[in-house]
Design brief:
Elements lengths: L13 E4 L2 E5 L12 E3 L24 H10 L4 E6 L1 H5 L4 H17 L6 E5 L22 H10 L7 E4 L2 H10 L3 E5 L9 H7 L6 E5 L8 H6 L2
Parallel strand pairs: 3-4, 3-6, 4-5, 6-7, 7-8
Antiparallel strand pairs: 1-2, 2-5
């Protein structure tokens, strides 16, 4: 059995599932059978800060709380799925991640919004010690975090959407068998080739759209509600 590094304490609903951060913040009765709005964290929900691990650097993207609140109102579960290679590299620890997450949750709460779950993968091919993994199933573009959300929260994956700033977020959605994805231009989304790579993932069974930011993806909630 591998002994993965542990935080000083686990906040509400949190645990490590074979090294992957798993935090369920609402009862399963609120998510069972529902299509979810999966969000990448850095560059989508919060401004990109390059290995974000300091509370003072947390800043929600414009109107992010408004979009999450709108999903809450429609009973659409909002779930963060985030690669956190900074932990795998040893740049920061789970305690730093928890502090940042607490700040994000507080900022959303101030806007009348809440998230239902958080999944974070620290594994990377260049990770240190137990976090070294060439192709970990939970690291996007692999679908492990979305599938774990389905298992633990009862999410209806086939009707769900994901919003990401990188093509790997979009591909994770396709690999998980969800309905579609929105690629945003915030964060890494404006990097050369990212939008084209994201849109190229779409096909007749997987819808991909491009938007400037999470706020512009707001109309997608109507599609989710009707799924």
């Amino acid at each position: 059995m591998i002994n993965f590094p542990q935080p000083t304490f686990f906040p509400k609903g949190a645990s490590l599932t074979e090294g992957v951060w798993t935090q369920i913040l609402t009862p399963r009765t609120q998510t069972q059978g529902r299509p979810a709005l999966f969000l990448d964290r850095d560059g989508v929900l919060v401004e990109e800060a390059h290995y974000l691990h300091k509370v003072e650097n947390v800043q929600l993207t414009p109107n992010a709380a408004r979009v999450v609140k709108a999903a809450n109102t429609k009973n659409i579960p909002v779930i963060l799925v985030t690669n956190q290679a900074g932990i795998g590299y040893g740049y920061f620890q789970w305690d730093d991640f928890i502090a940042v997450q607490d700040k994000i949750i507080d900022e959303l709460s101030a806007g009348g919004a809440h998230i239902n779950g958080v999944f974070a993968c620290p594994f990377h091919a260049k990770g240190q010690t137990v976090y070294a993994a060439d192709n970990h199933p939970a690291r996007k573009p692999n679908p492990g975090m979305l599938i774990l959300a389905q298992s633990l929260m009862g999410i209806d994956l086939k009707s769900s959407w994901i919003v990401g700033d990188r093509s790997l977020d979009v591909l994770a959605g396709k690999n998980a068998g969800i309905f579609g994805a929105v690629h945003v231009s915030t964060g890494h989304g404006s990097n050369a080739g990212e939008r084209a790579a994201a849109l190229a993932i779409g096909d007749d069974k997987f819808t991909v759209r491009g938007c400037a930011n999470l706020n512009e993806a707001h109309p997608m909630l109507d599609l989710l509600q009707g799924s």
